[in-house]
Design brief:
By secondary structure, the chain is of the alpha/beta class. It has helices at about 5-15, 25-30, 50-60, 70-80, 120-130, 155-160; strands spanning about 40-45, 65-70, 90, 100-105, 130-140, 165-175, 185-190. The chain is globular, with a radius of gyration of 15 Å.
């Protein structure tokens, strides 16, 4: 299976977006609510409908950027939030993206990638973050499957990818997941080494 632009765009066309909550996920919303510096540069990769970006924008964060390979994902945010800066909507491949951010938010991006890309994901996240920049968000905590997306994983596996690039502040079960995901999500908070 090719997890490429056409695959993801077709998911939006067919409304096969079971990961989509229609709102920011509770763990990310509560984390965003703790942020005080509204000038920080934030990236949301594999943003999908980008409810977290919409929420950040509503809270006065001016430097929020999203990237996705599916044009329809970006179109959804653009239609819902027409005042969101057009040049902050990046259509492209995360692994080819070049910029620097203070914070990158993870929400169903890691689990949507082919597991062969996980080492490259950790390295690219580190490259995109400013010194002491942070990667924070939610990852699935269930058995890694050959069939996906979503692909699962475990604390032990994730630690192996990240410890070379980050200080692990949190990699623990989420206590504030929505009910259907309770027990299957980890809160991840990593600081670039």
């Amino acid at each position: 299976m090719q997890l490429d632009k056409d695959f993801w765009n077709d998911r939006y066309v067919g409304n096969q977006i079971g990961w989509d909550l229609g709102a920011p996920s509770t763990p990310l919303k509560e984390f965003i609510d703790t942020l005080t510096d509204k000038s920080i540069r934030i990236l949301i990769p594999g943003c999908g409908n980008a409810y977290e970006a919409e929420y950040l924008h509503q809270q006065g964060f001016d430097n929020v950027f999203v990237i996705d390979i599916a044009p329809l994902a970006l179109k959804g945010l653009q239609e819902r939030v027409p005042e969101f800066p057009a040049d902050h909507l990046v259509l492209g491949n995360f692994f080819e993206h070049k910029a620097e951010y203070d914070l990158i938010l993870e929400q169903t991006f890691f689990c949507a990638l082919n597991p062969d890309l996980r080492t490259a994901y950790a390295k690219k996240m580190s490259e995109l973050l400013a010194p002491k920049g942070k990667l924070a968000g939610v990852m699935f905590n269930h058995e890694l499957t050959e069939k996906g997306p979503p692909f699962g994983g475990s604390i032990e596996e994730y630690s192996g990818y990240f410890e070379a690039y980050f200080e692990i502040k949190s990699l623990a079960p989420c206590e504030n997941s929505i009910k259907p995901r309770l027990g299957s999500e980890l809160w991840v908070e990593l600081v670039k080494s």
